[in-house]
Amino acid sequence: MTMIKGIEICNMELRMGTAVKGVLFDMDGIVLDTEKLYTRFWQEAAQFYGYPMTYEMGLGMRSLSKEAGERQLKEYLGKDIDYHQIRNKRIEMMNLFIQENGVEIKSGIHELLTFLKEKGIKTAIATSSPLDRAEKYLSQVGLLDKFDEIVSGHMVEHGKPAPDVYIYAASKLGLHPEACMVLEDSPTGLLAANRAGCIPVMIPDQDQPDEEVKKLVYAVTENLVLIRELL
After folding, report:
1. Which residue among 57, 116, 121, 125 sits deepest, i.e. has the most Cβ atoms within 10 Å of its Cβ?
2. What is the C-alpha separation between 78 and 73, in angstroms, rounded?
3. Over the Cα atoms of the chain, what is R_g?
4. Same domain, yes or no, for 97 and 114?
5. Are residues 177 and 112 in the same domain?
6. Distance CA 218, CA 10 (A)
7. How far apart are CA 55 and CA 62, in angstroms?
8. How many whole angstroms separate alpha carbon 88 and alpha carbon 23?
9. Average pLDDT for 202-220
10. In what order do the strands lie in the sheet with 149-152?
């Protein structure tokens, strides 16, 4: 591994000398500072129904499709729990919080998008969130028209950690997955990007990568601005 000014190169072979023609962004935790809200409100929703859900368990629910999320929550809290009841409560709590407080963007997103546009590199959002929610949040912070495509995991057969959403996002840009760099903060999303054949890059949000995660990624960077150095 090589460290260069806030960038850790983990697997040079994942780059394979391919020119990056597109950058695919996870939304929550990469573009918007909302991933922390999912962790918080998964905990609070579970606790509302009397289940002792830890912070680490909340982290484990990030970026999962409904099917994967149900399996994970039952592994944490027991096979007899009502996943949909807890999930609906999480959505209700989080929606109320955002209605009262709005959403925030991650530092450096405007600078990076400007750089990518200048270089002629295409961009897409590839999120596990429903399309209407993604468009609503991005519109609130003035970013909706800054991406060439907005793709939701609800638009493909299998959500993250399956590769479908990243393969589809690349195709919407008219690109092969191997020509696309993926910016992700969660192990689930990085696994999806790796399986898609993209160039996965982690920008840690709530936790740092362990050795297993580092095996999945081309690089780990401290922030969005440093992505320019990788390109």
Report:
1. 125
2. 8
3. 17
4. no
5. yes
6. 5
7. 12
8. 32
9. 94
10. 2-4, 7-9, 219-221, 199-202, 180-184, 22-25, 122-127, 149-152
Using a 10 angstrom Cβ sphere, with 0-12 exposed, 13-18 middle and 19 or more buried, the burial of residue 167 is buried
Model-level pTM? 0.91
CB 198 within 8 A of CB 40: no
pLDDT tens for 104-151 read 999 999 999 999 999 999 999 999 999 999 999 999 999 999 999 999
CB 184 within 8 A of CB 202: yes
With the CA atoms of 95, 167, 18 and 107 taken in that order, what torsion angle do they form, in degrees rounded to the nearest 10? 0
Mean pLDDT over the full length of the chain = 94
Q: Which two tokens stand for residue 161?
A: 């950690």
Domain range for residue 82? 35-101
On whether both 81 and 91 belong to a single domain, the answer is yes
Q: What is the pLDDT of residue 14?
A: 87
The number of distinct structural domains making up the chain is 2
pLDDT at position 18 over 90: no
**Collapsing DSSP states into helix, strand and coil, what is residue 165?**
helix
On the CB side of 138, CA atoms within 13 Å amount to 27
| 84, 101, 118 - which closes a domain | 101
d(CA 12, CA 124): 24
Tokens for 73, please give them: 């929550």
3-class secondary structure, 102: coil
